[in-house]
Amino acid sequence: MKIKEKIIEVFLFLCASITILTTIGIVVILLYESISFFGSVSIIDFFTDTKWTPLFSEKHFGILSLVSGTFLTSAIAIAVALPVGLTIAIYLNMYAPKSFRKTLKPLLEILAAIPTVVYGFFALTIVTPFLQNIYPDLETFNSLSAGLVMGIMIIPFISSLSEDALYAVPKSLKEAAFGMGSTRFQTAIKVMVPAASSGIIVSVILAISRAIGETMIVAIAAGQQAQFSLDPTIPTQTITSYIVQVSMGDAPQGSIEYKTIFAAGLTLFLFTFVLNSVSFWIKKKYQEKYE
Amino acid sequence: MNNLQKNKLIDSAFKTLGILFTLLGIIVLAILLYNIIKVGYTRVNWDFLTSLPSRRASKAGIYTAIIGTLDLMLLTIIFAIPIGVGAGIYLEEYAKKSRFSRLLEINIANLAGVPSIIYGLLGLGIFVRFFGFGGSILSGALTMSLLILPIIIVATRESIKAVSPSLKEASFALGASKWQTIQKVIIPSSFGGILTGIILSLSRAIGETAPLIVVGAMAYVPFVPHSLFDTFSVLPMQIFTWTTRPQEGFAIAAAGAIIILLAITFIMNGIAVYFRNKWQNKLQ
Predict the structure, then answer these.
(1) Which of B103, B114, B153, B267 to mutate to test the interface with A (most CBs of A within 10 A)?
(2) FRET pair for B109, CA 20 to 30 Å: which of A59, A146, B7, B223?
């Protein structure tokens, strides 16, 4: 009996250890191929060159053009999702009747459950033609509609998590503000949002991290030309859509094209790792504050 | 206008804005669904479901993609559920408050935030190349399992946490061992929550495209996989390749396939919500 218990415990421990192995695997794979990549490409060029053309005959390896594409589409997405998501969170928490809140929140969360390839189709075949009616110079592939649609997709990340944070603020704070004669808007802006600020910041960081790593929307709707530019009306390429482009082709193992996707992946991993760590740290600190 | 009136005006203006933004999300959802159904409904019929992919858009079907998706999910279930639930039980019931268990916890939170395409690179490096499984359905399923593991672990832990400690103590008081308590008391009473988490993680996996592209899912697979080492396609992969084709007919086929994919996703989410509500009622 004792032995059986022990075997089970060891088995369960091994299950949990797989998560550690996953992280080690990610780091080792990305580093291994990247080190070999930097054996043939200077790391200074990688960070300062503004051209990214590994698939052309004249090869340039400036990650900045992919980073600028990633930054641009994510910035557009956050510019949509942050004001809309936060307003929805405040509305649901302070204004909406309880029954409303209970139906609307899951309804909005459907937006996050839709596969991203569907959003890509939506951006390319519906949003872009619509925007072209307003602004005819918009190209077929552009970061504007990819960013806008990505913004819609991440609204629930901000609205749901921020609403949770607002909900966790002690009721006494809210009641005190009302007791002083504040309107709901004043209470929300001056009391509730500051009190829930760490939770709201965490939700925004997670949304940014999600936007940076988003792949299919940009791969379908934003084009495949890496450009060091912040013009939202022209085609662009992000780190993620570059990896997709190479994977759809036939880059032989060991070739420089094959290695570029790991160097690009390492860059992406570092960005999201920093963002996730910051949000984790804020979350821990915030829990201590209230407990 | 005095201060009070001004403040009341701002207050109601913000309320209107809140309603508008909330509706905006729902309206966009409606526009998306309406347009996709409008474009694709003509293709949704039995022929579409049972035809092989084709170079001619009007004849192309999603048979191999659907079977590929089902096979991939079945394998993912086999790999991910025992490991994910096991890891969740370990962290909640066995792990002592040590630095190692803290590390495990931070690590899982971090893995949940790693972009899916990075899992694709991991799968490419380990399963496709290192173990030599190639761009097979086995590589795809192993990659997908690692991707959804953090979701299953977190859901398992949350559900176990929600089980009242008195149940556990009663079981110990009757002389049950730790594993007996887990097996007979904790798992049955947290089952609804764990099941919800599993269904949600699978519904996420069904829609994932990026990691499978990197691992080597094929755009054109004219046959159904017969072994673990066969190449494969999945529904979102088929949608992606049709979407990127310039001919109009493929956009219609893509919309048809999206209707099927969305139907599967919504049904799974609906089942998950149903189980969650049922389980939460039982807990209270």
Answers:
(1) B114
(2) A146
For chain A, the structural domain boundaries read 2-40, 48-290
* Distance between B96 CA and the closest CA of chain A, angstroms: 12
Residue given tokens 């503004």 in the structure block = A50
The letter for the amino acid at A166 is L
pLDDT, position A112: 85
Beta bridge pairs of residue A52: A61
Residues of chain A with pLDDT under 70: 1, 287-291
3-class DSSP assignment, residue B74: helix
Tokens linked to B20 = 């508008």
| Superfamily for the A48-290 domain | MetI-like (1.10.3720.10)
The count of CB pairs under 8 A between chains A and B is 254
Angstrom distance (rounded) from CA B234 to CA B218: 8
Q: Is the pLDDT reported for residue B162 higher than 80?
A: yes
Tell me which of B4 and B83 has the higher pLDDT: B83
Minimal Cα–Cα distance from B195 to chain A, Å? 17
List the structure tokens of A15: 């299950």
Q: Match 């916890």 to its residue by tokens.
A: B105
The dihedral region occupied by A251, where left means phi > 0, alpha psi between -120 and 50, and beta the remainder, is beta
Q: 0.90 cut: is pTM over it?
A: yes
Question: Are the CB atoms for B216 and B139 separated by under 8 Å?
Answer: yes
Most confidently modeled of A280-289, B96-105, B203-212, B239-248?
A: B203-212
Best of B89, B243, B261 to disrupt the A interface (most A CBs within 10 Å) is B243
Q: Which residue of B has its CA nearest to A29?
A: B125
Sorted by sequence, the CB contacts under 8 Å of residue B8 that are 6+ apart come out as A183
Q: In chain A, whose CA is at the least distance from the CA of B248?
A: A125
The β-bridge partners of A61 are A52
pLDDT, tens digit, 9 for 90 and up, residues A56-69: 878 888 889 999 99
A15 φ/ψ angles, rounded to the nearest 5 degrees: -55, -50
* Contact between B64 and B283 (Cβ < 8 Å): no
Whether A251 and B101 have beta carbons less than 8 Å apart is answered as no
Calculate how close chain B gets to A5, using CA atoms only, in Å. Answer: 6
- Among residues B183, B192, B144, B186, the alpha carbon closest in space to that of B165 is found at B186
Helices (H) and strands (E) in chain B, counts: 12, 0
pLDDT of residue A290: 54
Task: State CA A158 to chain mean position distance.
Answer: 11
Q: Is the pLDDT of residue B194 over 60?
A: yes
> Does B102 score more than 90 pLDDT?
no
Q: What does the DSSP assignment read for A220-284?
A: HHS-S---S---TTS----HHHHHHHHHHTTPPTTSHHHHHHHHHHHHHHHHHHHHHHHHHHHHH
